[in-house]
Amino acid sequence: MIFDESKAIEIIQKHNLSEITLRVWKTRGTIPDKYRNEDYVKRETISSRADKIIAKRVCNILLMSEINTAVISEIVNCPELNDIVRGKNSFSGPELLSAIKEIKRIRIDVLKTFESYSPHKMNILLHDERIKPFAICRSFSKRELQNLREKGLDNKSDFEKLKDAFVKFAIQLSID
Questions:
Q1: Residues of the domain holding 16
Q2: Beta-carbon-side half-sphere exposure of residue 12 (alpha carbons within 13 Å)
Q3: What is the pLDDT of residues 104-136, one digit of tens each?
Q4: Fewer Cβ close by (within 10 Å): the C or N end of the chain?
């Protein structure tokens, strides 16, 4: 396409191109033909692709059987979280940030629980509504885990088994 300054300015504004582009096209005497097509879409920036990759990772984490998506949906204040996780919808910026924040908060809570031997902290973690301890602690039967939740932790070997399971779970929650 032959260079026309008014047409070039229109294309630059439409496609959000650099102002230096006008000088380059003027020097060459032509405007690239790809801009003649009305359906032409400029490639995505790295940051938008990175956001999509992070959003996909968040969805993969929320799909884990160990995560209680219904509770996370309430905390994040995103009623359509189930649709987003299944790929039928997408995150808005604030929803993605608050989902990331909540996943990181769960990870930190899990790891802090095991900094020292503390049956009280373990009991709090076993009652955390954001996670499903029955899915995390597969080495325990449901009855054993239910007893631990009701009566508390009484021996260190159970604590170590729970620690192994929960730390593996926390590792899977890495986003960055």
A1: 5-36
A2: 17
A3: 999 999 999 888 878 888 888 888 899 998 888
A4: C
